[in-house]
Amino acid sequence: MSGPEPKPAPLVLSFPLSMFSLEGIKRATYALMARATVRFETTPGEVRCILIPTSLKEEPEALERDFRREVVDQDLRISIEAQTEPVRNAILGLTFSRTGLQE
Amino acid sequence: MSKFQALKSYKSSLASGYRLLPFRFTQLHGDEYVLSNLIGEFVILDRAIIGQFAQGKLDPGGAAYEELKAKHFLIDDDSNVAVDLLALKLRTKLAPLANFTALHLFVTTLRCDHSCPYCQVSRANDDLREFDMSEDTALKAIALAFRSPSPVLKFEFQGGESLLNLSLIRFIVDEVERRNLEERRELQFVIATNLALLDDEAIEFARQHNVLISTSLDGPEDLHNRNRPRPGRDSYARTIKGIGRVRKELGRDRVGALMTTTAASLERGREIIDEYITQGFHGIFLRPLSPYGFAVKTKSYQSYGQEKWLKFYFEGLDYIIDLNLQGYPFTEYYASIILRKMLTPFQPGYVDLQSPSGIGVAAIVYNYDGDVYASDESRMLAEMGDKTFCIGNVHRDSYEDIFLNDRLLEALESSFAASAPMCSWCAFEPYCGADPIFHHTTQSSMVGKKPLSAFCNRNMAIFKGLIERLRRPEVKEIFERWAYS
What we know:
The structure holds 2 protein chains of 2 kinds. By secondary structure, chain A is an alpha+beta fold. Chain A has one domain (11-96): Alpha-Beta Plaits, CATH 3.30.70. Chain A is 46% helix and 21% strand. Chain A contains 2 helices and 3 strands. Chain A has helices spanning 22-31, 60-96; strands spanning 11-16, 36-43, 46-53. Chain A has a 3-stranded antiparallel sheet, with helices on one face. The N and C termini of chain A lie far apart (70 Å). By secondary structure, chain B is of the alpha/beta class. Chain B has 3 domains: 19-94, no CATH class; 99-403, TIM Barrel (Alpha-Beta Barrel); 406-484, no CATH class. Chain B contains 20 helices and 15 strands. Chain B has helices spanning 7-15, 47-54, 63-70, 82-94, 96-99, 135-145, 166-183, 200-209, 221-227, 235-250, 269-278, 294-297, 306-325, 333-343, 376-383, 399-403, 406-415, 436-443, 454-469, 473-484, and strands at 19-20, 23-29, 32-37, 42-46, 74-75, 103-107, 152-158, 186-192, 211-216, 255-258, 283-284, 331-332, 363-366, 371-373, 390-393. In chain B, the strands form 4 sheets. Chain B has an 8-stranded mixed sheet with strand order 10-9-8-7-6-13-14-15, sandwiched between helices. In chain B, strands 2-3-4 form a 3-stranded antiparallel sheet. A two-stranded antiparallel ribbon of chain B has the order 1-5. In chain B, a hairpin with a 4-residue loop joins strand 3 and strand 4. In chain B, helix 6 packs parallel to helix 7 and helix 14 (333-343) crosses helix 20. Chain B is globular. The N and C termini of chain B lie far apart (51 Å). The relative contact order of chain B is 0.10. The chains are: A alpha+beta, B alpha/beta. The A-B interface holds A 27, 30-34, 73-74, 76-77, 79-81, 83-85, 87-88, 90-92, 94-96, 99-101 and B 19-25, 27, 38, 50-51, 54, 83-84, 86-87, 90-91, 94-95, 97-98, 421-422, 425, 449, 451-452.
């Protein structure tokens, strides 16, 4: 008689909100959706991410490394987006000036 | 008195720091990342250096600083013209959008003499005339095509087997040329045909009207005949004979060929490429099956996975690179489209790799029954019973009804890559496209969840593979030729 199918063990990672943005954590979750389903638990100063691997083949160490790296990368992306938004708008404004494409 | 200012005056601006220009970054592998700017110029940097760069701590004298400055990732007091240059280059890239629809595909018949299991357009038996386009339908479609503001209008005739309705192709070409006496557009005509039915009449017609021929060649004889069955099992012989005849009577460059990768092709990449060389072609488009039509019904699409196709693709690409290094010029066309985006300020008009998506905007399909589809894939999907991307009918709807159709506008707007999750922060977005039809078909969402998308995974792997290969100076030289050809 076969028992219930084994399930991947959840991985719990905490991120202090004084260091990481919630937006970055959510983006990282999205980027890794093929590898893990993520549940969030929030406290006033922290977000706990409970990662449930989508496959038994997923190595917990690799998943943790890649999730943490993605959160850091996403935070940096958000910071660069904010820093460069005015010049981005200026470039787009120049690009579409006198093209007749805009109303 | 010196003609030049002292060295310190040239260095002073660097001391005042630099400002970031918009850029995105994506992991290449390990700690190596690709950074790209708004127009797709790219730099490869270590992750730690990206952090220093973003924090304004990059050493102005270093190689990374110079490369980032040269490729418009930063401005300092010496280089603030970069904002204008970026705008100019971006404008060049986006200019074709203003021309709107250039490619007009006419499905002259669904009838076909072949019965290919991977067929993506769900052909009909070749004696069923009810699947032919009528002259009335063609006239209304031509009128719509001339409403496009594009200075170039390309009319492509597709099937089924388009030559089974040559009389209608002749009717359309005559009518288009008549109207163009006033319209003065640049016209191009292409007949997509398996060449099995090529005869004197078709050749003479193509000669008179400067028509290009596009055909299918899947590889060596046994593979081609296996992939493309027809009565007599002689598809290969007829195709090769037809290619030879077109070249002899119309000119060497008047015929092109496309191949489709089936499970049987996967271990035979070199043989397929060799076949193209034997037949005198100087390039090949290594393309996977799409999830539409008979390719799904017959499970051809599901017969091999993404990894197997990518292995096939890169083995083929590396073989082609070796051929070039040995002195035989030969191009892989999918790579050349992407390299044009990576290495030049120009935008190739390839529908699948455009954002906003090329559906309706770059190409439009007039089906045999008058229905108008946003792309070839849209009508393939309709033949499977899903008419989501049917955006009108030539007998019922005006140009405005069709091109301002909510279905089309919603697909274009929602799938726009620069604002789609994951695409919006991806360094490869300038090279990629939005494919709302693929994602609608595979995920029931026009945007698609990119981490789960075969389109995204396949293209990401190809972008990374091309960037890796660009590190070799001798390969870079070849790739630059492809990009500008």
